[in-house]
Design brief:
This protein is an alpha/beta fold. It has 3 domains: about 1-70, Orthogonal Bundle (Arc Repressor Mutant, subunit A); about 95-165 and about 270-300, D-Maltodextrin-Binding Protein, domain 2; about 170-270, D-Maltodextrin-Binding Protein, domain 2 (3-Layer(aba) Sandwich), CATH 3.40.190. Helix content is about 45%, strand content about 25%. Helix 8 (about 205-215) links the parallel strand 7 (about 195-200) and strand 8 (about 220-225). Keywords: DNA-binding, Transcription, Transcription regulation. This is LysR family transcriptional regulator. Pfam families: HTH_1, LysR_substrate. Belongs to the LysR transcriptional regulatory family.
């Protein structure tokens, strides 16, 4: 049995922190330990496993093949150990840390309200939000960097569990001076001739739009791609381009008369916001609590 336990949780913690910072000294500072103690813990881990886990590139330590293999598994062990410690320490069940990844639209309109609601009822729960597009959120789940994700649209990865949260839809928008702005309807031919500025590939918004035009518009004139919605709104308001964005993101600009939502009956751009997490993760009361509060918030906003 002694050969089964060649590492400690402390050694795994040091390894994960070095992997994320690429520096022993920075990892030691974050873990409140000396640099020599961090180096010793890493050496003991590598000796116990019989494999080097990093390659040194200048002053940086970068994961090698074995390090990349170990990293998500080590994070999973540390996450499970945290749950065990919280349970047997007699703490309130809803306490600890939850790392949540969310797409830009969701973060902008929902995330702060959910966290504020949780703070009032569960002050010992700390939510760490990470904002990125849906593709990066899913990668964070698979790499055990995130415990929960909220993405735009559906995920087809068999390793990911998902639950529909709420419905949303996209709209095609133009500046008020754009030639298409005053038409009662805009057909596919006119859309195909227009110049577009769109969200970047990998974002949920772009995926939904691409799915809506698939088989209908063979070649779209995409002039620019941006990850920031505000940049897209500014370009469209200037009058030269069209874009496709969540209605929630452009409602204020439409009400202010800066943008016009075009009627595009040939495009179905309804979508859902979905909670996603790893299927192989254990039961997580923090995750369940977050989802419950998010659903209550969505119901109150749509009432």
């Amino acid at each position: 049995m002694q050969h089964l336990y060649r590492f400690s949780l402390k050694q795994l913690s040091v390894f994960v922190c070095i992997a994320e910072t690429q520096s022993v000294s920075v990892a030691a500072q974050q873990l409140a330990m000396t640099q020599s103690a961090a180096s010793m813990a890493l050496n003991q881990l590598e000796t116990g496993l019989g494999q080097k886990l990093f390659e040194r590139q200048g002053k940086r330590l970068r994961l090698n093949h074995w390090g990349h293999w170990l990293r998500p598994r080590a994070k999973r062990v540390l996450m499970e150990s945290q749950h065990i410690m919280q349970g047997f320490a007699g703490q309130q069940v809803i306490s600890g840390e939850l790392t949540v990844g969310a797409s830009q639209t969701i973060a902008e309109y929902f995330l702060a309200k959910i966290i504020a609601s949780l703070d009032q009822q569960f002050p010992d729960l700390v939510v760490h939000p990470q904002i990125s597009n849906s593709e990066v959120v899913l990668a964070g789940l698979l790499d055990y960097r995130l415990q929960l994700g909220i993405i735009e649209g559906h995920c087809s990865d068999s390793r990911i569990a998902q639950q529909v949260w709420c419905e949303d839809h996209l709209v095609v928008v133009a500046g008020k001076q754009h030639p298409l702005a005053n038409l009662p309807e805009v057909n596919l031919a006119r859309l195909s001739r227009a110049r577009w500025v769109l969200r970047e590939t990998g974002s949920g918004t772009r995926d939904i739009f691409n799915g809506a035009i698939h088989g209908k518009i063979t070649k779209l004139k995409v002039w620019r791609e941006y990850s920031h919605v505000a940049s897209l709104i500014a370009l469209v308001a200037d009058g030269a381009y069209l874009s496709c964005l969540p209605l929630r993101s452009v409602e204020q600009a439409i009400q202010a008369g800066e943008l016009v939502a075009l009627a595009t009956p040939d495009l179905d751009m309804r979508r859902s916001f979905n909670f996603v997490w790893r299927k192989d993760s254990s039961q997580n009361p923090l995750r369940d609590c977050f989802i419950e509060h998010a659903c209550a918030l969505s119901a109150s906003l749509s009432a």
